[in-house]
Amino acid sequence: MTKSSFKRIDGRKSNELRPITAKVGIIPNADGSALFAFGNTIAIAAVYGPRQLHPQHKQNPTKAFLRCNYDLMSFSVSERKKPGPNRRAQEISKVTEWALAPVLDLDSFPGTVIDVQIYILQADAGTRTAGINAASMALAHAGIPMKDLVCSVAAGKQDKELIVDLTKEEEDFKEGEGATDFAIAKVANSDEYTLLQLDGKIQPNIVSDVLELVNGACKEIYEAQKKALKEVVKK
Ligand code: CDP
Fold this sequence. Notes:
Layout: E1 20-24, E2 32-38, E3 41-52, E4 65-72, H1 87-100, E5 112-122, H2 127-141, E6 150-158, E7 161-164, H3 168-171, E8 179-187, E9 193-199, H4 207-234
Parallel strand pairs: 4-5
Antiparallel strand pairs: 1-2, 2-3, 3-5, 6-7, 6-8, 8-9
Helix pairs in contact: 1-2, 2-4
């Protein structure tokens, strides 16, 4: 398929994100909270802490323990999904911790835990990336010292075309070379990547093109995150 004849299923350009919704302070009782949506994919995040970690033997005397918990609500997808944690959720919780930890000053809070609860209310692909964006905003809202925000989006290949922020329909695309889903997170104002999670195949020589596409998308995500955080500061 030539570049000119390429059309995404929902009519977007290859580098176009779905409409972003970003809000902060959605859960008053949490220390920090946020909602982040890419189109029909909606994630909320709540942060509690830093607070003393129990049981005590789990405490790290040199730094805080970042504990992320990702959960895809059973009503967020149209198929049947058993409520509660599963291996997929455990894996996403872990990679979310790894994606966020590099921007946090965990050494300032020894012996404590920072709990980050991420719930997916509606899923149309890209839930781990929307969850990371929401969590990054919620951590900033909680006033936890951070060197920067983390921005995250999935890129991919539909047949031969590179695209950003895939929908479920795009992720499931089977024609030609099929689809590739590459979830990426980066520190907003740097070239530091904190998540590179590839599902499918991508030729090594086009990885730099993927990163360029993602960097452009992350600038838009960062602006939306910042705007939402500034709204709260104004109040
Ligand atoms: O959501 P993300 O792309 O980060 O992760 P995934 O494991 O690649 O899942 C892709 C999509 O599949 C999700 O966003 C949901 O739309 C869908 N899904 C589902 O319908 N039921 C599940 N139990 C898990 C995922």
